[in-house]
Amino acid sequence: MTHKFTVGTTVYFDGGMLSPAARGAYRIMRQLPVERDNRLLYRIKSAAESFERTAEEFQLSRGE
């Protein structure tokens, strides 16, 4: 499995119903290693927040 997004890419994050995260534009900071469960994970950061979040690839779409 390979990551769809590269470091530095702007993406739109939709955390879903259970996530308290702000939806909107985020920048990919890191691609995390693929583990045994085959989930594609990223570290993302919003300009509106002072910290990074972890997001699964299905929660992200191409930003503008």
Q: Helix count, per DSSP?
A: 0
Residues in helices, as a percent range: under 10%
Number of DSSP strands?
5
The main sheet comes to: 5 strands, antiparallel
Give a topology summary.
Elements: E1 10-13, E2 24-31, E3 41-45, E4 52-56, E5 60-62
Antiparallel strand pairs: 1-2, 1-5, 2-3, 3-4
Short description:
This protein is mainly β and 64 residues long. The chain is 0% helix and 39% strand. The chain has one domain.
Question: Mind explaining what this structure looks like?
Answer:
This protein has 64 residues and is mainly β. The chain has one domain (10-62). Helix content is 0%, strand content 39%. A five-stranded antiparallel sheet has the order 4-3-2-1-5, with no helix packed on it. Strand 3 (41-45) and strand 4 (52-56) form a beta hairpin. 16% of the residues are buried. The model has no long low-confidence stretch (mean pLDDT 89).
What brief labels describe this structure?
5-stranded antiparallel beta sheet; mainly beta; 64 residues
